[in-house]
Amino acid sequence: MKKFRQHLVSLFELNVDSPLWQKKIDRSIYLLILASSLGVILETLPAIKSNPSLYQSLLIFEDIAMAVFLIELLLRVFVINDLYAHTKTPWERFLLFFYLLIDFLAVLPAVLFALGSEHHDYFLTLRLLRVFKAFRHDDSVELVLRAIIIKKDILFKTAIIVVIMTVFLAVLLYEAENKFEFAFSQPNKEAQANGEPTKFTDIWASMIWCFSMFVGDLAGYVEGGFMPTTPLGRFIAGLLGFLNIAIVVIPTGIIASGFLEVLEQKKIEALFKVLMQAFRPKYNSILKVKLYERPRTVFTLQNALYIHQNNLFNILETKPGFRLRAVQSDDSGKYSDTNLVEFYGYGTLTEYGVKRTLENAKVTIICPDAFENKGIGYFAYAVSELHQAHLISNELFQTNSLNSLYDASFLHNPLFFEDTTLPHSKKKLKKVPLPKIAMEHFKQDVQSLAGQKPVWVFAVADLSENYRIQKVDDAHTQENDLFKWLAALNLEVYQIEISRKALDNYVFYELIAELSEQLKSINR
To answer: Please, are residues 71 and 29 in contact by the beta-carbon 8 Å criterion?
Structure first.
């Protein structure tokens, strides 16, 4: 049953990697929606109604289509919890339940007919609601809606400008047709003297007239002779005509630019999946476990994946779990003044970096300076995979960061000893500095995962040997605030220092295997 549910979820959530048979089923339902909607329209034609055999064939086809749609609805309800769990944004949740409502209303007439209900005119409208089901199988409408959402702020500001200008013109139009002496022309005086007062009797009437011009004069003002009579009033009406053109042209251009942005986002999403494949877990013959790939150079990724540099940087900027690191020349010569793309999405992404939890883990690994020091974060991850240990790694903060939001140390920080309890109110939480939020989550994760397990703290040091392991005692706790705080929690803490030279060496998997033998003896 579980496997059946998984197949249903994958069928209802198609992507570029979906099997061909699922795509064929989706396309068949899409064509059935269009064909059945056309059938509903054909049923109303007199020529069809006068042909009993043809009309009966349409009804049989309608019954078949309704049976398929009803089965689809029941299957979607069957896995609704799984589908909801896969939604990440409010927009996706809205679409999930919106389409579910459309599915229900589309099959409702067929159910009522089966129960013996009489035919009513509104059933025709409900039956034609199925055409909206096509939007689920064709993302063109969703792309337009997303484009409008992306540009909603600009569209709203544009609408505000149009309203203000229209109100201003309406006031001028009222003045021109009534009291404004420079606009009070002789023909208008004679018309008012003959008992024909202007129809622009107040500003509200002028505003209604102006706004009605935007929708093609649906109120019939032009036919009823409700038009300006003064030269200035007609000039203002001309300006309103230009504004009417701007109402169409400007939003169209804004939505078009939003549509291009949405298409670019879809392209980035597709390239992001390709980039994820480049860092997928692979079996490591030295450590005998599966590991995510080590950092790759930008040049390698561009040439191997055919991703343009601008698109690659766009992915790194917008997608969490990736980082770009500038690397200068080192002794090993592996990298020489280049940019490395690092991946740290092998766990739950947090405000400070990554948290990786494993069942029955006997050790918790802490890496407080993964962002500040190249290679140590991946090294700690590889050890956690080998020993099946929890991992808590700071991947975002460093001392003297160029970005002031991320300027914080997870080794020397008074926040370890301060009350960093975060407010529950989202409004108040926005005012809390990011380092304080990150530190509070860091402390909470350490306390929840460490328990009474040993803690291994990985750090980088300038050592003559490759690594050094030492238990943290009273003397070491004075070195940094992290050790002081861990000691206050009564945890068994070991510091594992790795030399920079060892981290730069591309054969450090052997070093991890060697180090792990000693760590196993400590953990016994």
So the answer is: no
Cα angle 39, 43, 45; round to 5 = 120
Contact assessment for residue 230 and residue 176, using Cβ atoms and an 8 Å cutoff: yes
Give the sign of the dihedral formed by CA 461, CA 462, CA 468, CA 471.
Answer: negative
Cα-based distances in Å from 317 to 15, 16, 354, 484: 23, 23, 17, 35
Cβ proximity of 349 and 327 under 8 Å: no
Nearest-angstrom CA–CA distance, 476 and 113: 80
Task: Determine what percent of the chain falls in helix, strand and coil, rounding each to the nearest 5.
Answer: 60, 10, 30
Q: Burial letters for 502-519: b for 16+ Cβ neighbours within 10 Å, e otherwise?
A: bbbbeebbebbeebbeeb
φ/ψ bin of 30: left (φ > 0), alpha (ψ from -120 to 50), beta (otherwise): alpha
Show the tokens assigned to 130: 């199925």
Single-letter amino acid code for the residue at 58: L
Q: What whole-number distance in Å separates Cα of residue 419 and Cα of residue 89?
A: 32
Cα 351 from Cα 27, distance rounded (Å):
41
Q: Could you say which DSSP state residue 398 is in? A: B
What confidence tens digit (pLDDT) does each residue in 425-446 have?
A: 878 888 889 999 999 999 999 9
Residues 204-209: contacts with CB under 8 Å, at least 24 apart: 205/174, 206/170, 206/171, 206/173, 206/174, 206/177, 207/166, 207/167, 207/170, 209/170, 209/173
The domains of the chain, with CATH numbers, are 2-138 (1.20.120), 152-253 (1.10.287), 282-312+346-523 (no CATH)
Distance CA 243, CA 181 (A): 26
Q: How far apart are CA 7 and CA 331, in angstroms?
A: 52
What is the pLDDT at residue 49?
79
Number of neighbours of residue 210 by Cβ within 10 angstroms: 22
CA separation (Å) from 427 to 115, 422, 423, 424, 437? 52, 12, 9, 9, 14
Going by their DSSP bridges, the two strands 493-499 and 455-461 should be labelled as parallel
The per-residue pLDDT for range 236-295, each reduced to its tens digit, is 888 888 888 888 888 888 888 888 888 888 888 889 989 998 999 999 999 999 999 888
Rounded-to-integer distance, Cα 498 and Cα 462, Å: 8
Question: How confident is residue 196, by pLDDT bands cut at 50, 70 and 90?
Answer: low
Q: Are 495 and 469 in contact (CB under 8 A)?
A: yes
Least confident of 239-248, 304-313, 401-410: 239-248
- pTM, full prediction: 0.70
Rounded to 5°, angle at Cα 88 from 83 and 94? 70
> Which residue type does 15 have?
N
Helix axes 52-78, 20-43, angle to 10 degrees: 140
